[in-house]
Amino acid sequence: AAQKKLMAAQAQLSSSSAAGAAEPVVESRPTATQLTRELLRSKGIAGLYKGLGATLLRDVPFSIVYFPLFANLNKLGQKDPNVKAPFYVSFLSGCVAGSTAAVAVNPCDVIKTRLQSLQRGVNEDTYSGILDCTKKIWQKEGPTAFLKGAYCRALVIAPLFGIAQVVYFIGIAEFLLDMLPKHRG
Fold first, then answer.
1. Other Cβ atoms closer than 10 A to 161
2. How far apart are CA 77 and CA 91, in angstroms?
3. Can you identify the CATH homologous superfamily of domain 40-179?
4. Burial class (CB in 10 A: 0-12, 13-18, 19+), 13
5. What per-residue confidence (pLDDT) applies to 27?
6. Are 99 and 154 in contact (CB under 8 A)?
7. Looking at the predicted structure, is the pLDDT value of residue 174 above 90?
8. What are the structural domain ranges in the chain?
9. SS3 185
10. What is the average pLDDT value for the chain, to the nearest integer?
11. Which pTM value belongs to this model?
């Protein structure tokens, strides 16, 4: 939706500079259901999985960096190996590990985001896959393009994973699972 809005604004700017002032374009925001229906109609079931390979390329290395880093940082806060680290250590360990992993895999996130774009602007490239996307970004924008958004991503991911670790530390998931009815085998 944001891309459509940006493209409409670009089209409006180019038409207003060529033909004087134009009326503003009003876009309604499509719902997730509308987007899903449109994807199914235009691209079939495969359209729902566009960019899956790039998503896995980002998420698997993220987990490979995040979980061992969190475990080691959290272990530093343990006074005794048999006692959990204090919750604030789990929070800070989750924040540091999450932001570090987010920055480490940011190049993969840039590629994933470009591949999953539904609409392209007039001057934007189209990509045939991960390697084509990587090559075009490298050639046209340089290596620093792979770090676009890394700072913001780290700022979002840090508290998210810090809070997730505190929730795990407190045992909320175990409490909720214990409330489920038990199946007798």
1. 22
2. 11
3. Mitochondrial carrier domain (1.50.40.10)
4. exposed
5. 61
6. yes
7. no
8. 40-179
9. coil
10. 84
11. 0.69
Phi-psi region of 121 (alpha: psi -120 to 50; beta: other; left: phi over 0): beta
Q: 165: Cβ–Cβ under 8 A, 6 or more apart, which residues?
A: 70, 74, 90, 91, 93, 94
Angle of helix 130-141 relative to helix 52-76, nearest 10 degrees, comes to: 80
Q: Report yes or no: 163 and 124 within 8 Å, Cβ to Cβ.
A: no
- The C-alpha atoms of residue 106 and residue 145 are separated, in whole angstroms, by 10
Q: Do the Cβ atoms of 51 and 115 come closer than 8 Å?
A: yes
Instruction: Give DSSP secondary structure letters for 17-69.
Output: HHHS--PPP--PPPPHHHHHHHHHHHH-GGGGGTTHHHHHHHHHHHHHHHHHH
In whole angstroms, give the CA distance from residue 156 to residue 172: 22
**75-84, 115-124, 127-136, 155-164, range with the lowest pLDDT:** 115-124
Q: What band does 15 get if pLDDT is binned at 50, 70 and 90?
A: low
The pLDDT tens digits of the residues spanning 49-87 come to: 877 888 899 999 999 999 999 999 999 988 888 888 888
